[in-house]
C-alpha cells in the first residue's frame, strides 16, 4: 500500500497554501471590489478583516489539519469520534467541486485570452472592441467548453503528481514567477504619467465610502481570498510534519495574500487612472479595461501576455487546492488511487461546470433566483458555503479542541493563545453570521 505523501519543506507548504489563497480572489476579484467600493477604505477594511478574522480561522484550519493527519472527513473523525463534525469535511468536498466547476470556466477564459495575446490577435480596432471580444468569448459554446476542459486538464495533471512531486513542485516555481511578474507589471504601471492618482485611490482614504456594507464586503473578500471554509487548508496542513510552526506559516500566508492583493491594485489602478479609464468597471476590469490599457503603452503586447500568464498561474494554484480536497477525501487512505481519482473527479467537475460555461451563451435565458447559472454558483458558494464552513471550523477549534492541546500545537504565550481562542469562539462566529445573513438578505431585497 502506498504511503501518505508529505510536503518536503516548510517553504513548499507555505507557497502551496499561499497559492491556494492567492488566485482569482486576489488578482481578479480584489481589484474590481476595491474599484467599486472606494479604493483605499475597502483596502484598509480588507487588511483588518484578514488579520483579525481571516488569520485566526486560517490558523484553526492548520491546527485541525495537522492534528488529524488525514483527509478532512477522516481528520474530523479522528479528532472527535462519534460526533457529526466530520460533516464539515463533506461540506468542503461538495463546495470545492462547485467552486472549481465555475472557477475552471474563468480559467478557460484566461487561456482563451492568453492564446489571443500570444498570437497578436487582440489589437483593438474600435472603442468597443474589448467589450465585444469579452462578450464573444464567454458566449461562444465551443470556445468556453474547450477552454474550461484545457484548464481542468492542467489542474488534474498537477494534482495527479502527488503532494511533493505535483503540488509542491508546481507551487515552488509558479509562486516565485508570479511575484516576479507582478513586480515587473507594477513597476511599468507606476512609471506611467498620471499613475500617482491610482496610488492615491488605493492608499489615501475617502471616508465617505466607510459604510457597514463596505465593511461586510471587505470581510467576505478576506474569507474568499484566504480560501478558508472549504477545508482546503485543513487538507494541506494534514501533509505537514509535527515540528512545523503553524503560527509562522499562517502569518506568512496571510501577509503574502495581502501583499499580492495590494500589488494587483498597484498593477491595475495606476494604469487605469493614467490612461483615463474608470476604476469601477466591475468584473470586466481584467478582461475589458486592462487589454485596452496595455494597448496604449510601450511594449503593451508583452505586458499583456505577462499579465495573462500571471493570472493563469494564480488561478491554477487555487484550482489544484480545490481538486486536492476532493481527491484526498475520495481516496481516503488508499493513496495508490490518487492518479485515477484525480482524473475521475476532475472529469466529473468538468461536466458539472458545463452549465456555468454556457450560462452567457446557449443557457443565457436560464436563471436561478434571478441569477445566471454561473452567478448563482458563485453566490451560493461565497455567500453560504464558505461562511458556513468557516463558522463550524471556528467553533470546532474554539470549543472541541482543549486549551492544553492548542498550547502544545501553537507553543505561544498564554496571552496570544487566549486572544486567538476569544476570536475563534466569539468574534469570528459573530462576523461570519453577519456575512451569512447579508447573503440571505440579498435573495429577498
UniProtKB/TrEMBL annotation:
The organism's place on the tree of life at top rank: Bacteria
Q: Which PANTHER family match?
A: TRANSPORTER (PTHR42948)
Q: Does the keyword Cytoplasm apply?
A: no
Main subcellular location: membrane
- Which residue ranges run through the membrane? 12-30, 42-64, 85-111, 144-163, 175-196, 216-239, 251-277, 297-330, 342-363, 383-401, 422-441
Keyword terms, alphabetized: Membrane, Transmembrane, Transmembrane helix, Transport
Please give the coiled-coil regions recorded for this protein: none
Give the originating organism: Psychrobacillus mangrovi
Q: How does it sit in the membrane?
A: Multi-pass membrane protein
Compartments (UniProt record): Membrane
Q: NCBIfam families recorded for this chain?
A: Na_transp
- Pfam families the UniProt entry points to: SNF
Name-wise, this protein is Sodium-dependent transporter
Amino acid at each position: 500500500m502506498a504511503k501518505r505523501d508529505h510536503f518536503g519543506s516548510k517553504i513548499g507548504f507555505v507557497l502551496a497554501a499561499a497559492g491556494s489563497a492567492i488566485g482569482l480572489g486576489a488578482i481578479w476579484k480584489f481589484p474590481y471590489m476595491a474599484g467599486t467600493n472606494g479604493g483605499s477604505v475597502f483596502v484598509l477594511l480588507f487588511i483588518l478583516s484578514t488579520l483579525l478574522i481571516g488569520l485566526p480561522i486560517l490558523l484553526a484550519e492548520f491546527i485541525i489539519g495537522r492534528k488529524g493527519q488525514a483527509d478532512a472527513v477522516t481528520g474530523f473523525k479522528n479528532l472527535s469520534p462519534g460526533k457529526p463534525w466530520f460533516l464539515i469535511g463533506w461540506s468542503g468536498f461538495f463546495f470545492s467541486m462547485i467552486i472549481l466547476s465555475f472557477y475552471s470556466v474563468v480559467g478557460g477564459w484566461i487561456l482563451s485570452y492568453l492564446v489571443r495575446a500570444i498570437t497578436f490577435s487582440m489589437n483593438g480596432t474600435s472603442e468597443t472592441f474589448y467589450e465585444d471580444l469579452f462578450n464573444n468569448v464567454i458566449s461562444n459554446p465551443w470556445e468556453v467548453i474547450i477552454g474550461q476542459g484545457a484548464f481542468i486538464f492542467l489542474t488534474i495533471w498537477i494534482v495527479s503528481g502527488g503532494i511533493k512531486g505535483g503540488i509542491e513542485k508546481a507551487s515552488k516555481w509558479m509562486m516565485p514567477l508570479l511575484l516576479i511578474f507582478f513586480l515587473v507589471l507594477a513597476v511599468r504601471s507606476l512609471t506611467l504619467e498620471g499613475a500617482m492618482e491610482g496610488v492615491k485611490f488605493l492608499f489615501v482614504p475617502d471616508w465617505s465610502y466607510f459604510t457597514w456594507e463596505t465593511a461586510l464586503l471587505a470581510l467576505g473578500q478576506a474569507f474568499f481570498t484566504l480560501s478558508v471554509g472549504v477545508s482546503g487548508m485543513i487538507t494541506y496542513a494534514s501533509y505537514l510534519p509535527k515540528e512545523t510552526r503553524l503560527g509562522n506559516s499562517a502569518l506568512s500566508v496571510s501577509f503574502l495574500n495581502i501583499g499580492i492583493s495590494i500589488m494587483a491594485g498597484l498593477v491595475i489602478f495606476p494604469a487605469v487612472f493614467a490612461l483615463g479609464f474608470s476604476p469601477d468597471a466591475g468584473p470586466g476590469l481584467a478582461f475589458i479595461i486592462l487589454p485596452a490599457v496595455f494597448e496604449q503603452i510601450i511594449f503593451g503586447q508583452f505586458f499583456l501576455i505577462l499579465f495573462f500568464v500571471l493570472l493563469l498561474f494564480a488561478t491554477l494554484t487555487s484550482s489544484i487546492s480545490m481538486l486536492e480536497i476532493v481527491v484526498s477525501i475520495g481516496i481516503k487512505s488508499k493513496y495508490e488511487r490518487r492518479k485515477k481519482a484525480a482524473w475521475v473527479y476532475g472529469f466529473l467537475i468538468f461536466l458539472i461546470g458545463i452549465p456555468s460555461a454556457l450560462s452567457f451563451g446557449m443557457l443565457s435565458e436560464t436563471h436561478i433566483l434571478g441569477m445566471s447559472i454561473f452567478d448563482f454558483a458563485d453566490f451560493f458558494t461565497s455567500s453560504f458555503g464558505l461562511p458556513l464552513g468557516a463558522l463550524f471550523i471556528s467553533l470546532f477549534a474554539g470549543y472541541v479542541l482543549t486549551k492544553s492541546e492548542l498550547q502544545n500545537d501553537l507553543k505561544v504565550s498564554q496571552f496570544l493563545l487566549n486572544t486567538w481562542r476569544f476570536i475563534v469562539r466569539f468574534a469570528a462566529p459573530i462576523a461570519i453570521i453577519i456575512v451569512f445573513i447579508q447573503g440571505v438578505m440579498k435573495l429577498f431585497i
